[in-house]
Amino acid sequence: MMPEPDRNEALREEFNRWAEAGRGEGMEEEHLPIVLPVLDRMNLSPYENVLDVGSGAGWLVRLLAERLPEGRAIGMDISDEMVRRSRRRYVDVENAMFVVGSADEIPWDANFFTHAISVESAYYWSNPARGLREIHRVLREGGMAWILINFYFENPHSHQWAGHFATPAHLFGAGEWEALFRDAGFTNIAHLQIPDPTPAPESYAGRWFQDAAQLRAFRQAGALLVHGTK
Hints:
The protein is an alpha/beta fold. It has a single domain (4-229), classed as Vaccinia Virus protein VP39 (Rossmann fold). It has helices at 4-20, 27-42, 59-67, 80-89, 128-138, 174-184, 212-221; strands at residues 49-53, 72-77, 96-100, 113-119, 139-149, 187-194, 223-229. A seven-stranded mixed sheet has the order 3-2-1-4-5-7-6, sandwiched between helices. Helix 4 (80-89) links the parallel strand 2 (72-77) and strand 3. Helix 1 packs across helix 4 (80-89). It is globular.
């Protein structure tokens, strides 16, 4: 296994390449069908402070900021290029901020955020256990953490992604993620799968799935949402 500092640097370089290729901007359309149900479950009040861990191109921070007119939405990403682009793109969103940082060392004071969310990021973290401890640290008492991922054990139609990742990723099951939450100090931990209602095309020629049937099965299985309370 690659040492954590080297792994974090590899992740920074990889997602800088994603940013330069414009891949971050396409994530909103791809992930919105599974993210909107999570935002509804979060039941956000206008004055809350929410952290997006692995904010990429910043689209989720924008959505959060719209729901937090009296609060703040903070996006954090390990890719400095993603952060630069997010700051430039959303410069007019007054209650949004973007910072460079990794999940295992969040550059923020303890006991600040009411919610932390991470979409399609947690399996890349160099040390998920430490990442969840850090999220627990920066949450206020009663604050909630929400992790949403498509690459997990119970969805076998995502397992082949491991062969395409430029950096190693963690393939954990729902029970393993719940155990990590518990070890980090969270309570009231639960998980569910959120199907993606997006219709699959009749044919598929990409590299992530064998064919359209597997893409369809992947979306039917849905994303894994794990959440817990501090």
